[in-house]
Amino acid sequence: MSSPAAPVQPPAPRAVRFGVLGCADIARKISRAMLMLPPGAATIAAVGSRSDDKARRFISEIGFPAARVHGSYESLLEDPDVEAVYLPLPTSLHVPWATAVAARGKHLLLEKPTALCTAELDAILSACDASGVQFMDTTMWIHNPRTAKMREIVSDKDAFGDVRVINSMCSFRASEEFLKNDIRVKPDLDALGVLGDVGWYCILSILWAVDYELPETVIAHRHPVKNQAGVLLACGATLYWADGKTANFNCSFLANLAFDVTVYGTNGTLHVTDLVIPYEESSAEFSVASKSSFVKPTIGWDPLPEKHVVTTDLPQEALMIQEFTRLVQNVRAGGRPEGKWPAITRKTQVVLDAVKASIDKGSEPLEVAS
Q1: Which structural domain range is residue 238 located in?
Q2: Does residue 53 sit within a domain?
Q3: What predicted TM-score, i.e. pTM, was given to this entire model?
Q4: 29-46 pLDDT per residue, tens
Q5: Residue 298: inside a domain, yes or no?
Q6: Using one digit for the tens of pLDDT, what is the confidence trace for 51-77?
Q7: Which residues are catalytic, by number?
Q8: Bridge partners of 234?
Q9: CA atoms of 38 and 156, how far apart (whole Å)
Q10: Of 36, 48, 141, 241, which sees the most CB atoms within 10 A?
């Protein structure tokens, strides 16, 4: 008797072919992340810039020598071999170019902050919905395996209880050159300033901690720091929920590097000091204290906080690209775009809008739109 035939293996999914719209410095980090993925996952098929020379120089630096050069953004969008676009342009340019990406049926990986306001983001998301393309923003820490482990702990009702308070601080000490010339301090390019930059991470970390339940009210902290053009350099806010939960955040271009988040529950406390960019690519840690009490007669703590270390074979930006390519390949195979990521982006933008409005109104309490 002949032996049974070996099962036929389905062909491996074809690599997702990215176009990079603009040669921003952050695009180099995304390019490096793609090179870390297994062969056949993702490739940069083309780079679009406002000049051929700039696109050509960028391609020579990023490790994708076969990528095609496009001397205009329009030309890249017309490239039939590009099926997904990474868009790192200044926030003020997101609506026209992100909607153009979607209108041409190309999936969209969009730098944060995704828009100047929720109405602009809704225009982008509506264009993606109409074309049936996948949307994701580029918040990287949410894809780190540490984040999944932290979610597991915060969701443990016995060990952690109910979340009651969250504190978040994201900052870096910007150079004088940055404060004069970076796009993040220019009102015509990134008018949200620090609030849209590292403030985005503060707001998302708070929403993550409460499983994306929107607060009822926000009140911006008084006396935000602005530059001469009126762009925010340092600010903060307090968020309130109807059940008594509260959260505070501060974000700054004027304070030492910090990516701290502390979540306080009725039974536990979680603290992470390097949320946005871990100290090391291959591992990330956080600490948890559970059911803490004093050692009598008030001479110590018991139990002591426990440190958790989560290792990873790929850095968080590569895991983000890996997840995005998986979703694109699913749509390519006939599936629907994943709605989780645009929903998280929109909630972050909604809270950011409320904070900005409170700042503009002299720290007046603002209700958060549903």
Answers
A1: 153-309+354-367
A2: no
A3: 0.94
A4: 999 999 999 988 999 999
A5: yes
A6: 889 999 999 999 899 999 999 999 999
A7: 112
A8: 225, 252
A9: 34
A10: 48
